[in-house]
Design brief:
The chain is an alpha+beta fold. The chain has one domain. It contains nine helices and nine strands. The longest helix is centred in the N-terminal third of the chain and has 25 residues. It is globular. This is DUF8205 domain-containing protein. It comes from Mycena metata. InterPro entries: DUF8205 (IPR058518).
């Protein structure tokens, strides 16, 4: 088995880059490239047929943490037996950030970056369940995955995972097998302990979805040899997303990044500069009578 990027299946209508405006082609191509790399990590480490060399080179730890996030999200520890009777659907969002924190800080605070390309990496922004109806195509993909693993002793469930990159609106769909090893990891529920690269502080976090994402992001950041193949170069659109987050923009990408900055230790020196989310007002009415205001965080 090799580690080439597999072809992507995108949700909705098939994407044809040559039909997009010239200004969008580069951005969409980058999104698809990074999604392809992420999907590769899913597939290599979630199949029992992967050979040892491919697993070592593509870092199955990546999907072990993703499995843990979905186990917590869908409360799969409560299931006394494998759950392959219905599909669990989740959305995983990733963003692109500079590898060096100093470069992130310069972008966020509107300082000038040096000349030359800035090395960047994939970072995990969020994991959340999706409750919208599954398309017939999604049902087929999920059923095929279940048929492949239903007789495998290690398999516990199959998640239909939609992968988004930086709130781009472009999603790729894949399946992720939840294995018993990931269940054992979550069941042990030991706090994460790791050293913050920007401060040198040893951090201890309770075992939950947020700490799993932070630990995985730190793991990717320390991958100096790019064994996971999740390194790239910063583009103008990536820089804009970081600056939009500082400016208080209400785009999904900006809000996801601000939420990530609030919860991760590496951003401690910048947290006081992270804008608060603006409450959204909704009027609750009974007939023509205003009975109060409800607030949702955007």
């Amino acid at each position: 088995m090799n580690c080439r990027t597999p072809p992507l299946k995108t949700s909705g209508n098939a994407l044809r880059l040559h039909e997009l405006p010239q200004a969008r082609r580069g951005k969409v191509a980058q999104v698809l490239e990074m999604q392809g790399r992420i999907l590769l990590l899913y597939r290599v480490s979630s199949t029992a047929l992967a050979d040892a060399q491919a697993v070592r080179s593509c870092q199955p730890f990546f999907t072990l943490i993703l499995q843990a996030c979905f186990i917590l999200q869908f409360d799969l520890l409560r299931s006394p037996s494998p759950r392959i009777d219905k599909p669990f659907v989740g959305l995983v969002d990733f963003g692109i950030e500079p590898v060096e924190f100093s470069n992130f800080s310069k972008i966020f605070t509107n300082q000038r970056l040096g000349d030359g390309e800035v090395e960047a990496m994939v970072q995990m922004n969020s994991v959340k369940p999706l409750t919208s109806p599954i398309s017939p195509g999604g049902q087929t993909v999920w059923r095929q995955a279940v048929d492949r693993i239903k007789d495998e002793e290690h398999a516990w469930s199959v998640v239909l995972a939609k992968i988004s990159t930086g709130g781009s609106g472009v999603t790729a769909t894949s399946t992720l097998t939840i294995g018993r090893g990931a269940l054992d990891l979550v069941r042990a529920s030991r706090p994460w302990s790791f050293e913050c690269p920007s401060t040198g502080t040893v951090i201890e976090r309770p075992f939950n979805i947020e700490s799993c994402m932070e630990f995985l992001n730190d793991y990717i950041r320390r991958d100096k040899d790019n064994a996971m193949r999740l390194r790239t170069k910063m583009r103008a659109s990536d820089v804009k997303r970081i600056r939009d987050a500082k400016a208080g923009a209400t785009s999904d990408a900006a809000k996801l990044l601000r939420a990530k900055m609030r919860r991760e230790e590496i951003f401690k020196s910048l947290k006081e500069h992270v804008p608060a989310e603006i409450p959204k007002m909704r009027f609750a009415r009974m007939g023509d009578v205003n009975i109060g205001l409800l607030y949702d965080v955007c």
